[in-house]
Structures are given as structure tokens and as C-alpha cells.
Amino acid sequence: MINGRKVLRSFRFAGQGIIDLFRYENNAKVHLLIAGLVVAAGCWLDLSRVEWAIILTQIGLVWAAEALNTAIEKLCDFVSPGLHPQIKAIKDMSSGAVLILAITAVISGTLVLGGKALTLWPLPVK
């Protein structure tokens, strides 16, 4: 049997984690700002449902990766507060994963938003 109180409590904890991510983590704030600009551009360009699905999936993936990266970094700092080469490697790889997703999101966003912009404003042919 599903315990509704436990489910609601776990959602509350997860929600607090999301709030803390965007409140305290600078990189998450940057991702939030860029996502807002991309959503505004998508509204202005009148994206289709499929285009929205692509854009929102990319935004969600970057945010999720940033949350995981932050959790890994906080765990590393807790377990090994001093400098340690293995901890550095773990943190570098974790932030590298966010960078990979962010680059992929930029490429996807450029294809979707740029493609849509080109259909609205075709370049003059000489």
C-alpha cells in the first residue's frame, strides 16, 4: 500500500532541493536565466509542440545534470574537506558532464530556434 504522507514528504524534500539549487548555486542561476531567455525566444518564435518538447527536454537535462553535479561536489567536500587528487578528478568529471549537456543544449537550441527564425526571416539571395 502506498503511504500518501511519505510520498508527499518526499516531494516536499525534493522541492526544497530544487529551491536550494537555484537559490544558492551560481551556475544553476545562470542556467535558469538562459532557460528563461530561451523560453521567451520560443514563445516569440511560436514553436511547435515537437520543438517545445526538444527545448524543454534540453533545459530539464541541463538542470538535472547541474543538480547532480552540485550534489556530488557537496558530498566530495563533506567526505574530503581538504585537497585530494581523486576528489578533484571526481569533481572535474562531474562538472564536465554538465558542460557536455550544456554544449548539446546550445546546439539543439540553435538548430530549433535558429531554424525557426530562418523560416520567419529568410536570408536574401543574391
TrEMBL record:
Molecular-function annotations in GO: kinase activity
Pfam families per the UniProt record, alphabetical: DAGK_prokar (PF01219)
Keyword Kinase: yes
Keywords: Kinase, Membrane, Transferase, Transmembrane, Transmembrane helix
Record-linked Gene3D superfamilies: Diacylglycerol kinase (DAGK) domain
InterPro entries: DAGK (IPR000829), UDPK (IPR033717)
TM helices/strands, residue ranges: 93-114
Superkingdom per UniProt: Bacteria
Protein known as: Diacylglycerol kinase (ATP)
Organism: Spirosoma utsteinense
